[in-house]
Amino acid sequence: MDRTAQITNEQRRKLTLCFGWETTILAANIIFAFLAVSGQVTQNVSLPLWIDAATGGTSNTTSNGTSPGHIVPYFVFSFASFSFVVIFGVCLAVAFYLGRITETDLKFPHTLLFLVGMFDALNGVLVVNASSGSRTAPYLQAILGNFTIPITMLLRLLVLKKKPTQRKFICSILVLLSLFICLLPKIIPALGADTAPGAKGAAGVLWPLCFMIGFVPAAAMNVIEEKVMKMTKGTRRDQISLIWFLFWESVYQFLCAAALFWTDIIPGFGNSADIHDFGENVAFGFLCFFGGRGCTSEPGTRGTVFILGYAVSYFGGGLLLRHAEGATLLALVTFSNATNVGTCYFHACTFPPVRR
């Protein structure tokens, strides 16, 4: 009874949002959850569309169809990382101008910020490389992201010593079973893997597994972010600014992404034959994003949608981690809802064919 009353009082506590608007914690968390879910759905839908819209040989890549280059997933990952530095850097400059950056921010240890950025980069290099529609079926991507839920519960137990409730534990087991069922057509060809989108044969199993494994560092990132967001209690000036956190996390993510350039020339995993080919592909990707090299507006448009969706997800997720229960709730709210919307989209819409 006391626990219920405590939760009710916490939900009724007022929180001041932008423009001085006051609302309850419960209402604010609903808004934050909406931002996190809408951003995650936008990511899930736009990522494979961006990668395959910019793949050499597809009909929607260039206006003249003569450009030999193509955008590699590594470019998508690294360019998005750099874009987050720019976006949150502008936000940080505004926060400095308004006097919102405090001594707590300036003195906050960067070790945790680096770990969040590093795990974010590892998540990116695994997930983005597996996200082409020719490797992992787009409808399957929306489902496999739920692997974050049980992994988050496990890491919260190991890192934060926060034990999940029996109900949450049972739900995580059900999630694992459902993911195994979704992969059955890829494991057993007789169930229809030959007609399903994505890679065939052993690659049809390995690429979805790579996509799933990419969410292990994503879960670690969220757990450490929860630790950062809840390290200090009390007034706003005693807590680290979310903008400060997002900027430095993005800086370290980009630096780690730059250090992982060699992953794109790994045979069978990357998309470049050698370092010279890698440079050509990155240059092509950059020019193509802005309409150069004969590209249409599709790569740039889809890339912009992905980057903005990711930024909104970062922002909403960070606020939800600070004011709600923690990383488990973020994973449950974000990925369970994003799965439903993303799967419906890919089943309702025709995914453009990939010709390599």
From TrEMBL:
Localization in the cell: Membrane
Membrane topology type: Multi-pass membrane protein
InterPro entries: CRT-like
Coiled coil: none
Annotated transmembrane regions: 15-37, 74-99, 111-132, 138-157, 169-189, 201-221, 242-262
A GO-annotated cellular component: membrane
Source superkingdom: Eukaryota
Chief place where the protein resides: membrane
Protein keywords: Membrane, Transmembrane, Transmembrane helix, Transport
Family note: Belongs to the CRT-like transporter family.
Alphabetical list of PANTHER family matching this protein: PROTEIN CLT2, CHLOROPLASTIC (PTHR31326:SF1)
Descriptive protein name: Uncharacterized protein
